[in-house]
Amino acid sequence: MSGTVLGLLIVIAVYMIAMIGIGVYYSKKNENVGDFYLGGRKLGPIVTAMSAEASDMSSWLLMGLPGVAYLSGFSEAGWTAIGLAIGTYVNWLVVAKRLRRYSVKAGNSITLPEFFSNRYRDKSKMILIIAALFIVIFFVPYTASGFAACGKLFSTLFDIPYATAMVVSAIIIVAYTALGGYLAASTTDLIQSIVMSLALIIVVLFGINVAGGFDVVLDNAKSMDGYLSLLSTHNPATGEGSAYSGLNVASAMAWGLGYFGMPHILLRFMGIEDENKLKVSRRIATIWVVISMFVAILIGIIGYSMSKAGAVEMFTNSSESETLIIKVAMLLSEKGILAIIMAGLILAGILACTMSTADSQLLAASSSVSKNLLVDCFGLKLSQKASMLAARATVFGIAIIGVIIAWNPNNSVFKIVSFAWAGFGAVFGPTMLASLFWKRSNRYGILSGMVVGGVMVFVWKYLIAPMGGVWAIYELLPAFILSSLTIVIVSLLTPAPEKEIVEEFESV
């Protein structure tokens, strides 16, 4: 093993040990499942903001988004980022405060399925069951994408088998999540957001220098047809640009709709110590998201110039282009001891993106299985100790399934995340908005809307979108619209909610 590789390994090892240490520390503070899944609603505004956004961005920020920008230019990545930025702000502005207040009012709910069930007084438990099942269905591949990103990182870095690298990464993520629960996940998310930010800055500065300066980067980008335009996109296979239609724009911006239905983000709203501090969280979160996504896109554009300069190889597909930031880190590590430390920070940043999302997803999926299904639905009587054991065992079980899904190294991180994001957005986005803001909505409408949203994501992705043309839009948009319409129509065609439910709604 060379000195460079050893140095990188030490930096990454220190980072991982620190994450596990945080898990061990917070393991002693989890007295019950409420602490494990929601931290006893004790999070401060800064931790809430950065935990929400770090768990949101995932490996997509440092691998997926630069990879898309590298191949096709600014349009797809740019419109996606714009949609996400708007979605982030509106979600914090509209949903956060009312959800924090309502989740306490509705039986002090600590999970999303529990909130929906309590909100509509669903004695049949069907809302709870369906919501929990959809969380598991879409979170498992989402978590798998994180494991895959780690596997790609270590496989490329240390020339070890992808499967081995992926499994070791999964074990570390599971370890601190299962130990420390929500508080550990949130605290590590804050640290990871800082590491991610440092990684972005280092890559941009180093990349511009290697490419020959920002003027060279700009000239190279301008030389490619449609590369820098918001209204056209570059085709790397033909070297030609093509129009980026209004439908494409709507499809990319539809990513922003997903925020209303992301369980791991919505749980951060529920866990803040004081709803009045959400304004601070909103400002911090929005600023960080806007800057980080812009820089990530810039990295993809800079990366192309680095390839032109011969510093890194020319990438031809998304699976390759998503390794750009890893290649940049390896190139930087050749420049001396200080450079090795900075390269280690970049690689730790990739891990941070992945780990901050995977830990939150594991917790959300675990709570759906152990609390919502086993305890709430099937009525298992568990002591506090047994409940904690079940929660941790579920984390391990879901992680194992995620590892199996992530076994293929050729799967695109961006594509996996895209599908899971659509699933959550369509299932829970309309449900969340209706439950918080429409008092006429009822359990029949909510239940129907969730099912239609979840099913339509699969139908549109695999049956309709392949037809091409106007049908080839991001599945989140049509599924979100159909789910919303279903909630409205079914709610109006069925009996109005009971007086008790309406009074609680009006009191929030």
From the structure above, extract its key features.
single chain; 508 residues; mainly alpha; Sodium/glucose cotransporter; two-stranded antiparallel sheet; 19 helices; 2% strand
Helix tally?
19
Largest sheet: 2 strands, antiparallel
Number of strands: 2
- Radius of gyration based on Cα positions: 22 Å
Tell the overall outline.
globular
Distance between the termini: 61 Å
Which stretches are poorly predicted, pLDDT < 50 over at least 5 residues?
Answer: none
Structure description:
The chain is mainly alpha-helical and 508 residues long. Helices cover 77% and strands 2% of the residues. It has helices at 3-27, 33-38, 45-72, 74-105, 112-119, 126-158, 162-211, 214-223, 246-253, 263-271, 278-308, 318-321, 324-332, 337-377, 384-405, 413-437, 443-464, 476-493, 499-507; strands at 232-235, 240-243. The protein has a two-stranded antiparallel ribbon with strand order 1-2. A hairpin with a 4-residue loop joins strand 1 (232-235) and strand 2. Helix 8 (214-223) packs across helix 11. The longest helix is centred in the middle third of the chain and has 50 residues, at 162-211. The mean pLDDT is 84.
